[in-house]
Amino acid sequence: MNDHIRETNGTPLADLKVTAESAAGVSRLDSLTGLRFYAALVVVILHVTREYAPVPLIRELFAPGGVGVSFFFILSGFVLMWSMRPNLPKRDFYRNRFARVYPLHLVTWAMAGVVILVGGLFVDPWVALASLALVQSWIPLEAVYFSMNGPSWSLSAEAFFYAVFPWVARPIRRASTLGLARGMFGLYAVIVVVTIAGHILLRGGPTVAFFYVNPLYRLWEFLIGMSIAVFVQRGWRTRIGLPISLSLVSMVFVAVAGLNFLIENGIGPVSVLGMRSLPNDITSLIMVPFFVLLIGSAASSDLRGKRSHLRSPLLMSLGKWSFALYLTHLLLVSLLSMVVPRGMPWQLSTIVAVLTVLSAIGISALFYRHVEHPLEARLRAPRKRAQEVAAVGEEEPHYAGN
């Protein structure tokens, strides 16, 4: 990483202090809001193409879309650390986090119940309540953690992150830059070893429950996001521009999709791995360094005042809608699957897929305007007490696919 960082004042990283601008919390990193839409869109396409794949290539290309969870866990830690207010009471912090996530979750949870009833399915009441309480990801049963509105499993992990944030934020902020860097790289190395060892020992076992959806396991990505925010606050700027970072992430994503295709079809040396597909948590381990670079590049670009299409009014709006897009799109796909058959000619399937994605985006705009935003504004702590500053336009949680 040292080859790609530049100290803004020529001093060693270990001696950098939080800049006045970032300490005041007034720097808006709007490019991160634009990035949200692209990340959410990958998840939407993943789920849509599972039902209506225009051509096999499209389905294979977006097969690793669940890796978006890592991007948003990292981004969530970054945003909360960047906009942290040391004098904000914990009760106000928790109230604001509840207001940010829970209202839309409650509405989509109820909608999922209606979809389940319409589809003639059944969910045990205790399973539905676990999803409602956002504790489903702690229960290592697929029928539980993917129950009701499936994507909400990641909100269960996010709720855990919110709970621990006030307790880990101060130690991370007070750590030396060198110590923080060592801790971040050490944490990543430990997770790599634990994950690979876990897959070897649990071959054919419940690795999704223990790794992919487990909030305690996923905490490492949130902590890395917090650490990156501190680096940026202390003056770290990557020399790699935002366009190059976007290209790198895209190329690695395509490469991972190709690797997944080889594993699924038992082609080449990867056939000896004996896997049916590339696990999402392994995919995350590959993508995390590039996600860190992308977030750092976007923040650096904004702080340098550079222009970016990510900051355009259109991308800003789409980014604001992305949480609603994440929580509502699978409900739309589920409803459509009840009336629109699979196995259509690829031309017709393409039309259905495109219309579904566009419809999901339109629905997300309505939910943002009439449900998510007004309910959050009503439930947040009074502004005179809640002095959190929205560092990326509006604070958003992650949106991940399952």
TrEMBL record:
MF terms in GO: acyltransferase activity, transferring groups other than amino-acyl groups
InterPro entries for this protein: Acyl_transf_3_dom, Acyltransferase_3
Keyword annotations: Acyltransferase, Membrane, Transferase, Transmembrane, Transmembrane helix
Gene Ontology CC entries for this record: membrane
Keyword Metal-binding annotated: no
TM region(s), chain numbering: 37-55, 61-82, 102-123, 143-168, 180-202, 208-232, 244-262, 282-300, 321-340, 346-368
Biological process according to GO: polysaccharide biosynthetic process
Residue ranges annotated for the Acyltransferase domain, each copy included: 31-368
PANTHER family: ACETYLTRANSFERASE (PTHR23028), ACYL_TRANSF_3 DOMAIN-CONTAINING PROTEIN (PTHR23028:SF53)
Identification of the protein by name: Acyltransferase
